[in-house]
Write a structure and sequence with these properties.
Helix content is 36%, strand content 21%. It is of the alpha/beta class. Strands 4, 5, 6, 7, 8, 9, 10 and 11 form an eight-stranded mixed sheet that branches. A four-stranded parallel sheet has the order 1-2-3-12, with helices on both faces.
Length: 315
């Protein structure tokens, strides 16, 4: 579904999908476009401009909704505005089921499984490069809302953190880091008790992102993935106990696809509670990651049956 049927036809002429045209300002057209639909996957950022209108249409049509937003303000708005309405309608709304947001929420949920409360959760993200899509650049220009972190168990404005470093497993090793919280803060805060949560991203991809001449990603294999590599490590601490879970893979944009498809399949299978929820809250996070193990380097044997970490992940 998109605004311009001619452009949709040109973009999808090699595929057998049904195309429907609608724009956000036309609620009647949105309603017609959602007839017969069970789940809407919103990939049209900036989500500050699209998410609320599409969730409102999804609720009118009794259609489940998810998006891939990294935008904190967008995710927070869905929780605040639609939680009661979604529960009343029996509809599941999942914001931020993407690499930035939902993936860290799943990993943090696993790392803190069985704990009533965590003292601290630190999320370290390393990319060997960042070739931003036009959508990423558009979102960066649109998303000027001050970012938040979790401090004393509450969402609070991000302070002026100085440079830091993180020692990742190979091949990244020691990396210079900057504090860059994404939508995972909003998701984690909704269902995990953690007194402090911070997200750090290595500085090299931020340099790529800030450079206007950095090209968009280019496919380097038959699946369409770029050559970009990522590694995410979540460290959770409760008192003297620390747990770590590490996952690595290729192409943050392409990796979002199996994250989304897994959510859609689980929604269609039924059993998830209605309302606005994070992906780690809506589903069994450990089982969710096990189901995705073929799409990234993550050893399911490091997870106990209850989701707790048996030992630090070695991959």
């Amino acid at each position: 579904m998109g605004r311009d049927f001619a452009r949709l036809s040109a973009a999808f002429e090699q595929t057998e999908v049904e195309l429907r045209a609608a724009c956000l300002e036309d609620s009647d057209a949105l309603g017609r476009a959602l007839v017969g639909v069970e789940v809407i996957v919103n990939c049209a950022g900036p989500f500050l401009d699209t998410a609320e209108a599409l969730v409102a249409a999804a609720l009118r049509a009794r259609v489940h909704y998810l998006d891939v937003s990294a935008e904190q303000a967008s995710a927070q708005a869905l929780f605040e505005r639609f939680s009661v309405a979604a529960e009343d309608a029996g509809i599941l709304v999942l914001p931020a089921v993407g690499f930035y947001g939902g993936f860290a929420d799943l990993l943090a949920t696993v790392a803190t499984a069985g704990w009533a409360e965590a003292d601290a959760v630190s999320i370290g993200i390393a990319l060997d490069a960042w070739w931003p899509t036009p959508g990423t650049r558009n979102t960066g220009r649109r998303n000027t809302v001050p970012r938040v972190v979790i401090e004393a168990g509450k969402l609070a404005p991000k302070g002026a953190a100085g440079p830091s470093e993180w020692h990742f497993p190979a091949p990244f090793g020691r990396q210079e880091m900057a504090e860059v919280p994404f939508s995972e803060m909003v998701l984690i805060h909704r269902h995990l008790r953690a007194m402090q949560v911070r997200t750090w991203l290595n500085t090299r991809p931020l340099d790529d992102l800030s450079n206007p001449s950095t090209p968009p990603p280019v496919a380097t294999d038959a699946s369409g993935r770029s050559a970009q590599r990522f590694l995410v490590e979540v460290r959770a601490r409760r008192g003297a106990e620390e747990r770590r879970v590490t996952a690595s893979g290729r192409d943050i944009y392409a990796f979002t696809a199996p994250l989304v498809v897994e959510a859609v399949e689980r929604i269609l299978a039924g059993g998830a509670h209605a309302g606005v929820r994070s992906v780690g809250e809506a589903f069994d996070a450990a089982d969710y990651l096990r189901s995705l193990a073929s799409h990234f380097d993550f050893d399911p044997s490091t997870l106990a049956a209850d989701g707790a970490i048996r030992a630090p992940a070695a991959r």
